[in-house]
Structures are given as structure tokens and as C-alpha cells.
Specification:
The complex is a heterodimer of chains A (about 375) and B (about 210).
Chain A (H helix, E strand, L loop, with lengths): L13 H22 L9 H14 L1 H18 L14 H60 L1 H31 L5 H30 L5 E4 L1 H18 L2 E7 L6 E4 H18 L8 E10 L2 E8 L27 H11 L3 E6 L5 E8 L8
Chain B lengths: L6 E5 L3 H13 L3 E5 L2 H6 L7 E6 L7 H10 L6 E5 L4 H9 L4 E4 L4 H33 L3 H11 L4 H8 L3 H15 L4 H10 L7
Parallel strand pairs in B: 1-2, 1-3, 3-4, 4-5
Classes of the chains: A alpha+beta (about 375), B alpha/beta (about 210).
Chain lengths: ~375, ~210
């Protein structure tokens, strides 16, 4: 995450800045000349205005230049004896006060301007940071929304099973009924015919459900993009932190730095890692191992990237290890038996391999490999 | 009056399943009443005949298990056969513990359903007969005088006439007379018969 440079501030050239000083003093001079006859004493306040304007728009140096020019102009034109640079004794104090006031005006103006600008800059930077953070959060939120869809995949499977089994149940029951109506003596052909009609209706209904589900999944064409696997893992650990905490499990990561980007379906691989992590956490539910730790590792092995999810749970049962990746195989009371099967097909569609091995000190390691395509074009 | 035609009640929110189950049961000559919700079942006037309830576990609003509890609390004693699309082990054991007859997975086979139904009807019939018997016994018991009830209590507790007389502070002859009255009014044929009746009325557990 890099911070954008603040927008370029408008800077004035040296010439412009001193020009401002010269012009504002000139304006003050002309105005003072015009107003001179209205006042019984030299009316010099407009020069303070000129100094302040110069210091504000031109900076400290321009302010001081304005003070200098004003001093010269005032001395020559407005301090007796007039039209001379000499100063009468009576005017000395008055003229000294003028210079002091002009200097103070210049200093106040330029420092006020400076603090205002510093404030503005801070505000700008803050705004940039806020907008960056917002963008980041929105992205995370979108990812989470998708993940929560993934989490409910088990529920989706259950609901599909229900949808299909309803008409199927009806078909079977009607089928039995049809046989009964025909076996009666005398056979009730009319009832049997009506029942057969219902079988056709319910069978068609089951077919509709199936094609609706097929349409639902068709939309999900794999969207491949370049991304860093470590980023995905990092995001997932953030996402899983609460759940893990609830189960008194800590999630550790051991991610190799400098892994190249890979070209893959980010969301699908997120699903795979999420699934492995959830399985790992489930496996630790019944162990008394302390601390309960789930470790996610990434590294490069030749032309392949390896991601491992390691738990210290109940480990692999050699009897079920082979069936583990089969659809509908589950050892959990509420499992659909689809997690590992879907995960394996995702990894294989990326030309990778998903496998499981026992962890030497107890627990299990699930790992998948993905090929690293060396022809990555750097943008 | 004792052997009315049994009725099978079916609650399922899915019309196709409801129709199919009802068609199947009618085809084997059973009498069926279908309901699309638990509310419809509760609000309907149901015949007072032996029967059982086929209940889908997945229902909108209250699920099948919760409805089982509701019925129990309301004192509706009807054997329940659950049907479900996805076998959930904890759910099954909970339902069975709460007295369900059977837990059938969709799609179920005719034989399994009919076996469960017959089991349910038998159980309901037995319960009804027992209840009828108890209510007869209760009315007989209520016809006893309070002295006769006292005597019956002590006699079925295993006390001899002499002991009963001592306990109640009256003569043994009077006890014999009361005892004869009790046996006659309760229509008991023997002392063991009277004890069985007391058991059914749960008299013996009172003390």
C-alpha cells in the first residue's frame, strides 16, 4: 500500500512574489496620495495593508521587501521634510514606529499564512488516507460478502437436496400407490391413471429443479487474474481470526517472501484455503492439545507453489483417508461431504494437486500445489 | 364404539408430497386427513379415533420437532412418524427420545411407511383402551365412600383385615363389610385384581 503524493501546491516564482510586493506598495502609495488631503497627519495605514498582502501571497521575503519599499516611499514622500530621504527630528519616533509596525504586520501575516497552509496540507493528507482506507475496506467487505456465500455452501447443498427430494418422494409414493390401485380387485384403473399423471407432473418438476440448479452454477465461470497467494492467505487469516478465537485456536502463518504472482481464480482458491482451514479447526475441536494452533504456510518448490494448512487435531484416519476426497463423504455430524471434493476439483482445474499427509507430531497437513507460470508479464 | 376406523393425519407444506402420501395411503385402504401446516392441524376438528400423525420435520415456522413438543404440552397424545429429506442424526435421536414411532428418510418405501403406521395405530389403540379402562375405574372409585377408600388403600398396601381394623380403630367385622363393598363396587374378582386396579389409578404410589 503506497500513499499518494499530496496534490502539487501552487507555487509562485520569485519574480511574481516580489512583483506582488511592488504592486501592492504602489497601490498603497497611489491611494495614500489621493487620500492625503483628507487627513491632517500622514495617513500611512494602507502601507500596512500592502505589507500584509505581500507577506500573505508572496511569503516572508516578499513581506520584508514590501516593508523596505514602503519605508523608502514613506520616508521620501510622507515624512517631513517631504521629497527628501532625510528625516526631521520630530518625525523620527513616528517613522520608527511605522517601520516597527510594518515589520510586525509582515511577520503576523506570513506566519498566519504558513500555519494555515500547514493545516491545509494535513487536512489534504488526512483526506487521502481516509479515501484509501475506505477503498480498502470496501474491497475487504466485498471479499467477505463472497466468503460468507462460500460458508453457506453446505446450506445450499442441503436446500438443493430438499428441493429435489420433494418431487422424488412424491414420485415414489405415487408409484407405490399406482401399483396398489392396479393390484386391487377389481383394479381401480381410473385412480391408477390419475396417479400416473401425477407421477409425470412430479417427475417433470424434479427435472425443472435440476435444470434451475444447473443454470445457477453455469454463471460461475472461472475468472482468472494475477495475484499474490500470500495476500489471499493474509486476508483469510483476518477473516478467520474471530472464529478461531471463539474456538480458542490461534492461527499462525509462515509465508515465504518473494513468491511470484500466480494466474488463477482468486475466489475459488480462497474457497479452498478457507475450506481447509475450517476443516483444520473442526479437527481440533475435540483435542485437548494446548495451544491449539492452525498454521498456514506458503513456499516455492521448483516450478510450483505449495500452500499447506496444518492442524494439531485428531489427525487422519487411515481407513477413511482414501475416501476423504470423495463427494458426500463426511465424518462430521453436520457435514455435506462436499468440501474436500470441491476443493480438489478446484485445485485440479488449476493444474495443481491437493493431498493430505499426517503431521509428524500429531494432526494433519493438507497441502495443494499450483504451477507457477514463468511467462508472467510484469506490468 | 371401541373400534372406529383409524385415521392417518399428514402435515406437509409441500402439496406434491402431501398428495402423494395421501394417495398411497388411500390406495391401501387407509383413511387420511391432510394438513398443509401445523396450525391447520391444530384448528381442525379431528375425529376421536385411533390414528397417527405423519409429520414433515422441515416445516415453515415451527419445525416438526418443536411441534412434537407443543403437542405433548397440550396433552395431545398421538404417535408421530417423522419424514425428512436429509437425515440428521441428532434430530433423529431427539425425536425418538421424545417418543416418535419412526423417522423416515425421503423418498421412503411403502413397506416402511405402512409398518410404521400400523405400529403407530396399534400403540394409539392400546393407549386409548387403557385410558378408557382407567376412566371406568376412576368413576367406580369415585362411587366409594371415604371410609371405603381408606379401607381399599390399606388393603391394597398389603395389610390384613386385622391390621386395617387396628389402624382405623374399628372392628374387624366392619372392615370385612367395607371390603366386600369395595370389591363389589370396583367390580374386582380378587385381591390381586383390586391391587392391579389401584396400580392403574396410581393409588399405591400416593403414600
Amino acid at each position: 500500500m503506497q500513499t499518494n503524493p499530496p496534490p502539487p501546491r501552487r507555487t509562485r516564482s520569485t519574480l511574481q512574489r516580489y512583483g506582488i510586493a511592488l504592486l501592492s506598495v504602489a497601490a498603497a502609495f497611489v491611494s495614500t496620495l489621493c487620500l492625503q488631503h483628507l487627513f491632517p497627519y500622514p495617513f500611512l495605514f494602507l502601507f500596512f495593508g500592502a505589507v500584509m498582502v505581500s507577506a500573505w501571497f508572496g511569503g516572508t521575503a516578499a513581506g520584508l521587501v514590501a516593508v523596505l519599499i514602503s519605508t523608502v516611499v514613506v520616508d521620501y514622500f510622507f515624512v517631513p521634510p517631504f521629497y527628501s530621504f532625510s528625516i526631521s527630528a520630530t518625525s523620527e519616533a513616528y517613522f520608527g514606529a511605522f517601520i516597527a509596525c510594518a515589520l510586525v504586520a509582515s511577520w503576523i501575516s506570513s506566519s498566519k499564512k504558513k500555519s494555515e497552509e500547514a493545516l491545509k496540507e494535513t487536512r489534504d493528507q488526512l483526506e487521502i488516507r481516509v479515501s484509501e482506507r475506505t477503498a480498502e475496506l470496501m474491497k475487504t467487505q466485498a471479499d467477505l460478502a463472497h466468503l460468507s456465500q462460500v460458508m453457506s455452501m453446505g446450506e445450499l447443498a442441503a436446500s438443493i437436496a430438499h428441493e429435489i427430494s420433494q418431487p422424488l418422494t412424491a414420485v415414489v409414493a405415487h408409484g407405490h400407490a399406482c401399483v396398489e390401485w392396479l393390484s386391487a380387485s377389481p383394479p381401480n384403473v381410473e385412480k391408477a391413471r390419475q396417479t400416473a399423471d401425477r407421477i409425470i407432473q412430479d417427475g417433470t418438476q424434479a427435472g425443472t429443479v435440476v435444470s434451475r440448479i444447473r443454470a445457477l452454477f453455469k454463471k460461475e465461470t472461472p475468472a482468472k487474474s494475477w495475484f499474490y497467494m500470500n495476500e489471499v492467505i493474509h486476508q483469510l487469516t483476518l477473516f478467520l481470526r474471530d472464529e478461531a478465537m471463539r474456538r480458542h485456536i490461534t492461527i499462525q502463518t509462515d509465508l515465504a517472501s518473494g513468491l511470484p504472482r500466480i494466474m488463477a481464480d482468486r475466489i475459488q482458491l480462497q474457497q479452498v484455503i478457507l475450506n481447509l482451514a475450517m476443516n483444520g479447526m473442526d479437527a481440533m475441536a475435540e483435542t485437548t492439545e494446548d495451544p491449539k494452533e492452525l498454521v498456514i504456510r506458503s513456499r516455492q518448490e521448483g516450478e510450483a507453489m505449495v500452500v499447506q494448512v496444518e492442524d494439531c487435531g485428531i489427525g487422519l484416519n487411515p481407513e477413511t483417508a482414501e475416501k476423504m476426497f470423495d463427494p458426500f463423504f463426511t465424518t462430521k455430524p453436520h457435514g455435506t461431504g462436499m468440501g474436500l471434493s470441491i476443493s480438489r476439483s478446484i485445485v485440479e482445474s488449476h493444474e495443481g494437486r491437493l493431498s493430505a499427509l499426517p503431521r509428524p507430531s500429531g494432526g494433519a497437513i493438507f497441502q495443494f500445489t499450483l504451477p507457477i507460470h514463468s511467462h508472467e508479464f510484469n506490468d | 364404539m371401541t373400534d372406529l376406523r383409524p385415521t392417518i393425519f399428514v402435515i406437509d407444506d409441500d402439496a406434491s408430497v402431501r398428495d402423494a402420501v395421501s394417495n398411497l395411503l388411500e390406495s391401501v385402504g387407509l383413511h387420511v386427513q391432510v394438513f398443509k401446516s401445523t396450525e391447520a392441524f391444530q384448528n381442525a376438528s379431528r375425529p376421536d379415533v385411533p390414528g397417527c400423525l405423519i409429520l414433515d420435520i422441515r416445516l415453515p415456522g415451527m419445525n416438526g420437532l418443536e411441534f412434537q413438543e407443543t403437542l405433548e404440552k397440550a396433552g395431545v397424545e398421538i404417535p408421530i412418524i417423522f419424514i425428512t429429506a436429509h437425515g440428521d442424526v441428532p434430530m433423529t435421536s431427539r425425536a425418538m427420545k421424545a417418543g416418535a414411532i419412526e423417522f423416515l428418510m425421503k423418498p421412503f418405501q411403502k413397506e416402511d411407511l405402512l409398518a410404521a403406521i400400523h405400529h403407530g395405530i396399534d400403540r394409539d389403540r392400546l393407549r386409548r383402551e387403557e385410558q378408557a379402562e382407567i376412566s371406568v375405574l376412576r368413576s367406580r372409585f369415585e362411587a366409594l365412600t371415604s371410609r371405603e377408600r381408606e379401607v381399599m388403600d390399606l388393603v391394597v398396601a398389603g395389610l390384613t383385615n386385622k391390621e386395617v381394623a387396628a389402624r382405623l380403630g374399628i372392628s374387624e367385622v366392619t372392615i370385612k363389610m367395607h371390603r366386600g363393598q369395595v370389591t363389589r363396587k370396583m367390580e374386582a374378582d380378587s385381591l390381586p385384581g383390586l391391587v392391579r386396579m389401584a396400580d392403574k389409578l396410581k393409588l399405591r404410589n400416593r403414600r
